[in-house]
């Protein structure tokens, strides 16, 4: 009996620590967003805060996801084997720390007069993208050719139910609640019933929430999507090597090569994915209709929206997007309140110029 009481107390303490960290986290993230451009090494301090918060929230979300009813949480925390779990955690950790490492390398590069650290920084970026490519390929194989989802681990951005109090309410751990308690927490009993209502994803086993790739076109599409960041970095690295030996470093058509290569791979992957969906006749036996699960729909929307990042890359950024952003910032800087937001946007322009992982996938 005493052991049960002790375990309950430990669980309550963990929940209180998680709830406290969640209340502090938005303030720290807002502070980190405002830091760049304020003082020397401000972007380094801001990214250290972001990286620390990301690693902390990943461990908390993994703990909270064990009893979550959310589809994304159930799928990413399902048992695909130890190698899959290790690859997913390492991929999330790498994604959280990649920009911090690049900022450190870039600061060493600025202090180097011989240009050695410039090559080291590109070696670092290439190694990170190669590691991510390998980990994504392992996850693809271990999930039996199911498309990758982002993030590959439980995330509170995807899962509202990762809140321990909401999860306990859904599971009835604290027992029956009075109408007064429900109105206090949810505003009305109807809101509580809507929050705890089941959908088709709740009745679907985790492995069936994302359907496997069923054709060669779909597999090739997914492989192109996984390889695109690495191919883009290799093209950028080759371009960097050419500009280092060029006697007259003016703009040439070759600067478009990495961007066009990356964009063509993304567009081809998208078109093959659409063709594969049209030609695929198999539907999950757990679905009541041909609609996608919430995970598949969210991932498709994320992939469609990822094309926006090309506005912040290469010649498109330098020749089209950046001049327009600078023009808007200069016009709004003298406006009250709006000028503060414009100034923050302006502080991020040099970061987009200098760091690869600000616009990477």
From TrEMBL:
<dbReference type="GO" id="GO:0005778">
    <property type="term" value="C:peroxisomal membrane"/>
</dbReference>
<dbReference type="GO" id="GO:0007031">
    <property type="term" value="P:peroxisome organization"/>
</dbReference>
<dbReference type="InterPro" id="IPR013919">
    <property type="entry name" value="Pex16"/>
</dbReference>
<keyword id="KW-0962">Peroxisome biogenesis</keyword>
<keyword id="KW-0576">Peroxisome</keyword>
<comment type="similarity">
    <text>Belongs to the peroxin-16 family.</text>
</comment>
<dbReference type="Pfam" id="PF08610">
    <property type="entry name" value="Pex16"/>
</dbReference>
<protein>
    <recommendedName>
        <fullName>Peroxisomal membrane protein PEX16</fullName>
    </recommendedName>
</protein>
